[in-house]
Every structure is written in structure tokens, then in C-alpha cells.
Design brief:
There is one protein chain. The protein is mainly α. It contains 28 helices and seven strands. It has a three-stranded antiparallel β-sheet with strand order 5-7-6. A two-stranded antiparallel sheet has the order 1-2. A hairpin with a 2-residue loop joins strand 3 and strand 4. The two termini are about 80 Å apart.
């Protein structure tokens, strides 16, 4: 060691070719110039070798394939990602498409959905303006490969003895974005075979998640690209099919929100009323790649929303279905706005598209049990088919006309007496709770009017009577079979309640035997509900029972339960269902009835006598009779004035005495108050004296005890 203040420096830390310059307070190692030169040359060699791949994409692709062949896919993926994200590459060439295909294959094999999305964004920036066809080929390849991988994984899970891939996805994996939640892990341990469930989830989940992320990435990339608009809607249809096939309710909601956001951005920033390029308009500069609304783009958006509406019906997500109806209305408003632009030949949406729209609506309103709008949707669908479908057969026209009539008959009935009763009760409620009733009624009416407007109905307040009137005026009854006309007459006319069920039974049996489909497409879908006329038997039975009870309430006051059971025995419903219908009808104030199980009968009552309107009738009657008596026998005013004067004089005479009595009473109250306060003070003083005496006694006792103890201590000391 060489010692130099203030450090000790071991010489073996430096090589022999290194000289050390020592100075007081500082050490400076000086590297040899040859070592510096060799290190700089090695760095330049590595940088030139690295830049060779960046300047030549072919070499990068070849190197990535070599890395993949020696089981290093992660390194190959990183290399290709660097090539795609490099700022040096601004000119597209066919090699980049091959690089992108290889890159996506690596992402598929490694389940790298985020890297695949990033690569698509980089390739979009590179090829969107130079080679949009190449971007389309790459996206189609990715979607097809992801779908194929998902199907393969599902088939493999089935082959391994999985109970059901759909059951696993629907019950165990509720959200692909948050698959490993504590709830899902806990539920997986509660299944019949936890190991099997975890194995199936591990096999299916990566493929499902990658496919879902692929759809999201593609839709995000193509959301405003007019040149690849067909590909965008194709990807949207594929995503909807994915949600429908695998029962992905959470992903369907997110997909609907995404599509709705894209549509809202195009409406807000895309200048929806500006003609597109094909009509001679200028490209839109607010949204990159968007060239404005065209007739084709509107039809594509409508077709996508129709598929979305059908998927909502299959998954029983009625809220999303109604929001989709609002989206369709907004798209139709865009088409209507374009037709107002002068010089733009923008035809209205095709009748075939609108017919498909209303056909989807019939399914949505049927599964949601909204029979009113279901019937109106059927009416619009039948009208469009009859007007524009010249090749519709007689059997199909008869089937659809029958569906329109049956759908209208399924709407719950409201008799004239019920209407008058409801008007009276509404008037009374409006007098008592004017603000609350008005707000509730306005909200209900606004909802009804808004839905009617969104669906394009001819009235803002659709009713059963209005629809039946339209059916009669349009001669739709001519295309309906005779037995359905008889059923219509039975339900609409005031029939005898004793023979109503017996008359309707053969008609309903004949309707139940109908097997013809009401859909013009005749496509079989295992997820859709029954599309035959026989599905209307159940709601028609409820309407028939309601009509029967209403007629009984108008003709009888008391009906035995055994008689009700005999009347409804041929409808194929139990008495529990009849009883439930009676309770629901009473709650909805359709009629007033009480079920007396002790006496075994139904007691129908006058709804007016049991309503809130009769609570103040006796008081009102008394007031009216008093006014009548005063009118018939007017009182003697002279006698009344004399009585009033005598009363006033008595009051004036007794004022001074009353005043003196009040003063005396006041004094008495004050004396009693003072006496009460004095007694309270004396009681407090007495308690204080007792407490002081008790404390003095305690102190004296304590002093005596201490004196005794002191004497004991002295005696003990003296003895020691």
C-alpha cells in the first residue's frame, strides 16, 4: 500500500496497465487509451448491428423467425414490436404486413392481448393512409385466428369432459376483465368438482379474453374510418355473436356502451348533416378518417343495431334493448336530416330494413311482456310487409294478420266502468295530492309518448282500442281465419259469463294446434322464443279470465268458489293461478272482489262504495241538508238579533268579574309557586346539614381509630 493522506489505496484494485494519480484529498483512476478505444469500437459495432435490423425490416423478420425457432417467442415479440414502433419507419412496404402477421401469431401463442392492441395501433398509423387494404387484411386475419383459437379451446374443453363450456363461462366467469375476483375464486371452490372447474376455466378463459380484447381493439381502431367501415361493422357483428354464443352479459353491456359512444362522437364531431364525399361534400376534418354520413353507412349502422337488438332479446337484457331502440331512432333522425339538405339525393331507409327492425321489436317486447308495444310493432311490421313485399304468400299474410289480431287481443282490457271509476279516483287524488299525482302521471305519460315516438307509431298515446280500430279500418280482419274472428267477438262483446269459457275452449284448442311460424325469414334460432301463434294462448287465457270475472262482478254479488272452479276447469289453469289473477286485478283496481275462504265464495262489491270518494259522503250530505233546510224555512232574523244582543250585553257585564277572577287566580298561582320553591330550598338545606353531620361523625371516628393505632405502635416499641 502507498500511503497518501488522507486515503489508503489498495493497488490490486486496478490492472497493471492502469496508472493511479494520487493527490491529497482525491483519487483519479486514469484508463489506458487502448482500453478506451477497444470499448468504443465494441459499442459502435453493437449499435451498427442493432441498427441493421431497424433499417432493414427483412432482417428483423428473419431474426424474429430464428428466435421463434429456438423457443424464444418473447424476444421475437419484443424485436418486432421495436420495429413497428420505431419512428424511422414511415413508409409502408409489403414486408411490414408479413411482420405484422408474425407479430400477431406470437401474441396469439403468448396470449398477449395488450401487445396485440398496441401493435395494431402502430400498424394503423403506418398503413392507414398508404395501404388501407393491408390493414384490413391484418385485422381480418387477427379476428379469424382469435375466433379459431377460441373454438379450438372450447372443443378441447369439451373433449376433456367439461360439463359445459357455456355453463362455466356464464356461472364461474362473469366478467372477462376481472376474472380473478375473490367472489369467482370462492364460487369455484363451491362447485361439484373444483379441480375440473379450475382446469376448464384456465383453458377457456385466456382464449375468451383474448378474443374479447381483439374485438374491443378493432372497434376502437376503426371507429371513425370510412374506408374500412364494413370491416368495423363486421367486427361489431362478430362481437355481438360472441356475446350471444357464450352468454356474455357483462361484455354485451360494455359493447353496447362502446358502440353508443362511437355513434355519439360521430354525431357530435362528425357533422352528421354534412353530405359525404360520394355526394360531393368535403371530408370532415374534425374526426380523423371520417368522410361524413352516407346512405351505405346509415344502413350499416342500422343493421348493426338490429343485431344488437336481437342479442339483447336473447340475453334478456331489456334495458339495453330499449336503449338500442333509442340509438336506432337517432340514426333514423340522421337520415331524415340528410334528406333536408338541398342537392343531396338521400333516399329513406329501405322498407326491408325497417321491416326487420319491427320484427326484432316484436321479439323484444314479447319476451319483456310488454303486450301493448308488441302489438303495435306487429302492426307496423305487417303494414310494411303487405305494402312492399309483393311476393308474400297468402299463407304468410294470413299468419301475420292473425298475429296482429292476437297480439292486440292479448293487451289487458279496461271496461267503461273501470275507466269512469279510475277517472273519479284520479280526480280525488288530484285534489288531495295534486303535485305528486301530477308529477307521476306526467312521468308515465312522457315515458309512453317517448317510446311511441322512438318506435315511429302514428300516435303518441297508443291504446288497445286505437289499435283495434286501426285493424278494423285497414280491413286486416279479412285475412284472419274465421275461428279467430269468433274469438275476437267473444272477447270484445258482452258475453254471458256462464257460457264464455265453454265457447272459448275449442277456439283456444284450435289456436294451440297452430304450428306455422310468423317470421318471414323462417330461420331457426334455438335461443329465440316460440314464433308460432300458439304462444298467444297463455296471455289470451289471462284476458279471458279477466273478462269472465268482470262479467260476473256486473251480474252477481256472491259466487261460490266451486262454481268458479267449474267455470275455469277447461282452460288448463289451476285455481291457484286464478286466485293470483284475482289478487293482481284487485290491486290494479280493475274490479273490487274479496275472497272469503271461510264461506267458500267470492264477494263482489261496488268499487264506488269502497273507494276513497265515499269517505266524506255523510259529512257532505249533512252540509247539503242544512243548506236545504235554511232555504226552505229561513230563520227569524229579528229573533236572532235579539238573542245576539242579549249575549253581547251579558258578556259586557261579566268582563270586570272575569278580569278580577283571572287576577286572583294569577296571584294564587304565584303564591303556590313561591311556596314550592321555599320547600325545595329547605329540603336542600336539610340535606346539606345531614351530610355535614355525617361527614363530622366520620372524621371523629377516623381520628379515634388513628389514636388507637398510635397507642398500639408505642406499646409495641416499648416492649421491644
Amino acid at each position: 500500500y502507498h500511503h497518501t493522506q488522507p486515503f489508503w489505496v489498495p493497488l490490486h484494485r486496478y490492472p497493471l496497465s492502469t496508472s493511479v494519480s494520487l493527490s491529497p484529498g482525491r483519487l483519479t483512476p486514469c484508463l489506458d487509451k487502448n482500453n478506451q478505444t477497444r470499448k468504443r469500437q465494441q459499442q459502435n459495432k453493437n449499435m451498427s448491428h442493432h441498427h441493421t435490423f431497424f433499417h432493414k425490416p427483412e432482417n428483423a423478420l428473419r431474426r424474429a423467425q430464428e428466435l421463434e425457432s429456438i423457443s424464444q417467442p418473447t424476444a421475437a415479440l419484443t424485436l418486432l414490436h421495436d420495429v413497428l414502433s420505431s419512428r424511422r419507419h414511415k413508409t409502408w412496404s409489403p414486408t411490414y404486413e408479413q411482420i405484422m402477421i408474425t407479430y400477431l401469431n406470437l401474441c396469439l401463442s403468448l396470449n398477449k392481448s395488450r401487445e396485440a392492441k398496441d401493435g395494431l395501433h402502430q400498424y394503423r398509423n403506418l398503413s392507414q393512409s398508404q395501404a388501407p387494404g393491408s390493414l384490413e387484411n391484418v385485422i381480418r386475419y387477427l379476428i379469424d385466428a382469435a375466433e379459431k383459437k377460441c373454438k379450438t379451446a372450447k372443443a378441447e374443453a369439451d373433449a376433456r369432459g367439461a360439463a359445459s363450456a357455456t355453463a362455466v363461462e356464464e356461472d364461474e366467469i362473469d366478467d372477462l376483465d376481472n376474472a380473478s375476483t375473490p367472489q369467482s375464486i370462492l364460487l369455484s371452490t363451491m362447485s361439484v368438482d373444483p379441480e375440473k372447474t379450475q382446469r376448464d376455466s384456465a383453458l377457456l378463459l385466456p382464449s375468451l379474453k383474448f378474443l374479447w380484447e381483439t374485438y374491443r381493439a378493432v372497434l376502437d381502431i376503426l371507429r371513425s374510418n370510412s374506408k374500412l367501415e364494413r370491416l368495423y361493422h363486421g367486427a361489431a357483428l362478430g362481437a355481438l355473436k360472441f356475446c350471444r354464443e357464450y352468454r356474455r352479459r357483462t361484455e354485451f353491456r360494455r359493447l353496447c356502451d362502446m358502440l353508443r359512444m362511437h355513434l355519439g362522437n360521430l354525431q357530435k364531431y362528425g357533422s352528421g348533416v354534412v353530405p359525404g364525399v360520394e355526394e360531393g361534400g368535403k371530408p370532415n376534418n374534425k374526426v380523423r378518417g371520417w368522410e361524413g354520413w352516407t346512405t351505405e353507412s346509415i344502413e350499416l349502422h342500422l343493421q348493426t343495431r338490429f343485431a344488437q337488438l336481437e342479442t339483447a332479446s336473447v340475453l334478456h337484457l331489456y334495458t339495453e334493448g330499449f336503449r338500442t331502440v333509442e340509438d336506432i331512432y337517432n340514426i333514423l333522425q340522421i337520415s331524415h336530416s340528410r334528406r333536408k339538405i338541398p342537392g343531396v339525393a338521400a333516399p329513406p331507409p329501405k322498407a326491408k330494413l325497417m321491416a326487420a327492425y319491427y320484427e326484432k321489436l316484436t321479439t323484444l317486447f314479447w319476451v319483456s311482456e310488454n303486450y301493448l308495444f308488441h302489438a303495435f310493432a306487429w302492426y307496423k311490421y305487417y303494414t310494411l310487409c303487405k305494402e312492399f313485399n309483393r311476393g308474400m304468400s297468402v299463407e304468410m299474410r294470413q299468419m301475420q294478420a292473425s298475429a296482429v289480431l292476437l297480439a292486440a287481443l292479448c293487451i289487458p282490457t279496461v271496461s267503461e266502468t273501470q275507466k269512469s271509476q279510475k277517472k273519479k279516483e284520479d280526480a280525488i287524488d288530484a285534489q288531495r295530492h295534486h303535485i305528486q299525482s301530477t308529477v307521476e302521471d306526467d312521468i308515465a305519460k312522457e315515458k309512453m309518448a317517448r317510446m311511441a315516438t322512438l318506435l315511429g307509431f302514428h300516435t303518441r298515446h297508443p291504446t288497445r282500442e286505437a289499435l283495434l280500430h286501426e285493424i278494423q279500418s285497414r280491413n286486416i280482419m279479412e285475412d284472419v281465419p274465421d275461428y279467430l274472428r269468433d274469438l275476437y267477438s267473444l272477447l270484445e262483446a258482452n258475453s254471458d259469463p256462464l257460457v264464455m269459457v265453454a265457447t272459448a275452449r275449442p277456439l283456444l284448442e284450435k289456436l294451440r294446434a297452430e304450428v306455422g311460424s310468423t317470421n318471414a325469414s323462417m330461420e331457426e334460432d334455438e335461443d329465440s322464443d316460440d314464433s308460432t301463434l300458439a304462444r298467444y294462448v297463455r296471455p289470451l287465457t289471462s284476458v279471458l279470465l279477466l273478462k269472465l270475472l268482470t262479467n260476473l262482478s256486473t251480474a252477481y254479488h256472491t259466487v261460490s268458489l266451486d262454481h268458479i272452479k267449474s267455470l275455469t276447469s277447461g282452460l288448463g289453469v289451476t285455481f291457484q293461478q286464478v286466485e293470483k289473477l284475482i289478487v293482481l286485478s284487485t290491486h290494479s283496481k280493475k274490479f273490487s272482489v274479496r275472497i272469503d275462504h271461510r264461506a267458500g265464495c267470492l264477494r263482489f262489491g261496488d268499487a264506488d262504495l269502497e273507494s276513497d270518494a265515499m269517505r266524506g259522503q255523510l259529512t257532505s250530505l249533512s252540509k247539503q241538508l242544512s243548506s236545504v233546510c235554511r232555504f226552505i224555512t229561513p230563520p227569524d232574523e229579528v229573533h236572532q238579533m235579539a238573542i245576539r244582543e242579549q249575549l253581547y250585553s251579558d258578556v259586557r257585564a261579566s268582563v270586570e268579574n272575569e278580569h278580577a277572577a283571572m287576577l286572583e287566580r294569577k296571584n294564587l298561582i304565584e303564591k303556590r309557586k313561591e311556596e314550592t320553591e321555599r320547600l325545595a330550598q329547605e329540603r336542600l338545606k336539610e340535606e346539606a346539614r345531614a351530610k355535614a353531620a355525617k361527614e363530622a361523625a366520620r372524621k371523629a371516628e377516623e381520628e379515634a381509630r388513628m389514636a388507637v393505632e398510635e397507642r398500639k405502635r408505642r406499646m409495641e416499641k416499648a416492649q421491644m
